Amino acid sequence: MAFLWFKVFHILFVIAWMAGLLMYPRLKIYQLNGTAGDSLFTEMQLASVRLRKIIMTPALIGTWVFGLAMVAVNPAIISAGGSVWFPLKFLLVIVLSGFHGWFTAMGRKIDAGMSSVDGKSLRMLNEVPFVLLIAIVILVIIKPF
Question: Cβ(18)–Cβ(133) under 8 Å?
Fold first, then answer.
């Protein structure tokens, strides 16, 4: 029964994390459209900081905690459906966590007015977490390997 509760909370935290990862770059794009000191810049800066601190980072932590808890109570899921899907899924989650860190660092640079990324690049990078999510969900549900 614990496994199912861990799974429920893992899925809920993944949903919140992905919402944050998809929204955060958009807020930073809007912030880049403003200039330091004007209301647009300030509002988007505050919104993105709140999003990161209240939703994104706690959801990242919850995703990892409940994901690892599922493995702890049922280590057999590592080898369920073949031996390749889980390590590949784990690797993609690490990459997704890296994107979280990169977005956070990039956001802090934008806040400080020292960003080297432009809005167009950020729009394209904004799609990467969703593509990773698609691959992760396919690996978990279909277990193609």
Answer: yes
Handedness of CA 42, 43, 49, 53 (dihedral sign): positive
pLDDT per residue rounded down to tens, the chain (145 residues): 999 999 999 999 999 999 999 999 999 999 988 888 889 889 999 999 999 999 999 999 999 999 999 999 999 888 876 678 889 999 999 999 999 999 999 999 998 888 788 888 888 888 999 999 999 999 988 888 7
Distances (CA, A) of 70 to 10, 59, 76, 96, 120: 9, 16, 10, 19, 39
Q: How many CB atoms lie within 10 A of CB 96?
A: 21
* Helix H or strand E encompassing 138: helix 128-142
Instruction: Say if residue 57 is exposed, middle or buried (CB neighbours under 10 Å; 0-12, 13-18, 19+).
Output: middle
Residue with tokens 């330091």: 36
CA quadruple 77, 7, 99, 51: dihedral, nearest 10: -170
CA distances to 5, 24, 39, 57 from 63, rounded to whole Å, are: 13, 18, 34, 10
